[in-house]
TrEMBL record:
GO terms for molecular function: DNA-binding transcription factor activity; methylated-DNA-[protein]-cysteine S-methyltransferase activity; sequence-specific DNA binding; zinc ion binding. It comes from the Bacteria. CDD domains: ATase. The active site is at 36 (nucleophile), 317 (nucleophile). Belongs to the MGMT family. The lineage of its organism: Bacteria, Bacillati, Bacillota, Bacilli, Bacillales. This is methylated-DNA--[protein]-cysteine S-methyltransferase. GO terms for biological process: DNA repair; methylation. Its EC number is 2.1.1.63. SMART domains: HTH_ARAC (SM00342). It catalyses: a 6-O-methyl-2'-deoxyguanosine in DNA + L-cysteinyl-[protein] = S-methyl-L-cysteinyl-[protein] + a 2'-deoxyguanosine in DNA; a 4-O-methyl-thymidine in DNA + L-cysteinyl-[protein] = a thymidine in DNA + S-methyl-L-cysteinyl-[protein]. It comes from Paenibacillus faecis. Binds 1 zinc ion per subunit.
Amino acid sequence: MIPADRKQVYYQALIDKKSEYEGIFYVGVKTTGVFCRPTCPARKPKFENCEFYETAKEALLASFRPCQRCRPLSHPNHVSELVRKLVEAVEENPEHRWREEDFRRLSVDASTARRQFKKRFGMTFVEYARARRMGMALKQIRAGSAVIDAQLSTGYESGSGFRDAFSRIMGAAPAQLGEQRILKASWLDTRLGPMVAIADEQALYLLEFVDRRGLEREIERLRKRTKAAIIPGSTPPIESIERELTDYFAGRLTEFKTPVTLLGSPFQKEVWDQLRKIPPGQTTSYAHLAAGMGKPSAYRAVAQANGANQLAILIPCHRVINSNGELGGYGGGLSRKQWLLDHEKLGVAE
Ligand SMILES: [Zn+2]
C-alpha cells in the first residue's frame, strides 16, 4: 500500500510531468483502464480516478493496460528492440498463453527474453504475459460482478461469463506437469456471489470472493510460495468447504471443520488463530485482539495480518470492526461484511 501523502506527491509529479519520477511510479487511470508513465502527454486524470503503483507488474495485475501514448513498458531509452517487440505482441492478443513456438515464430530466443524482461521489469516475460492475461480475466469478472451489491438482497445467480473468465485466469493443465506439485481451483457459487477455493488433496489454501481486490496477486503469491501449478478441478477439501458453505449460508453451521493450510509468518498465524476464536454473532477490534495476544501495542500489525487472511468467512476477519463501532474495512466489500455479521447474529438469536 502506498501511503496517502506519497500518493499526493506522485499526483503532483504526474501533473507537472516530472521526468525524475520515471520508473518510480506508474499511474492507473480508472476511467480509461490504462496505466501511464508520470510524463504521459495525454490529458491528466483527476486524483480520485488515479491508482498509483510502484511497479508495472502491479499495474498489470490490477487489470490496467499499457497506455498507447506514453507506452509505459516500451520507453525507447530504456528498452531493447526485443522487449518492445514482445510487449507489442502481447498487446495484439493479451489473452494468449505463450509457448515455445510463439518465440520461434517471432525469431526470439526465449532465454534472452527472460533475462531482458527480468532486468527491465523485475519479472520474466512469461510472468509478464500471465500478469496481463490475469488482469484481463479479472477485469471481466469485475465488470460482471459490479451488480453484486445490488443483488445481495434478492439472491445471487452467476452467469456463465464468470466461468469463462475463471478458466482464463487459472488456465488449463500444463502439458507436462512432471514432478510439479498441483493445487486445484474451483468456482463456488454462494449467496453472496462467486468464490474461488484452492486446495490440494489434504487442505484448503485459499477461499476468496472472485471480485476481491488483489485476488490475482494473492493467487500469484500462493503459486510462488507453494511452487505449485494451479489447475481447475476439485479435491476432498474443496468438496468439504462447498458443503460447509452451503450449510453456513443456510444458517445451519457455525464452525468450519475443513482442514486448512495457513501460509504466513508465525505472527500472522497467531492472529488468524485468534480470529477463529471470535464466536459467530460477536465482533471485536484490532486493539482488543492485540491486547488479547499480550501485545497491546501491535494492533497495526494485527490489522495487517487480518488483511492478509486468505480464507474468507472461514477465518472470520469480518468479525473485526473499528473500536468506535464502525464497520471498518473488508477485502470482499463492506456490504458483504455487513451481511455476514447480520447473518451470524440471526443464527445466534434462533
Ligand atoms: Zn500514457
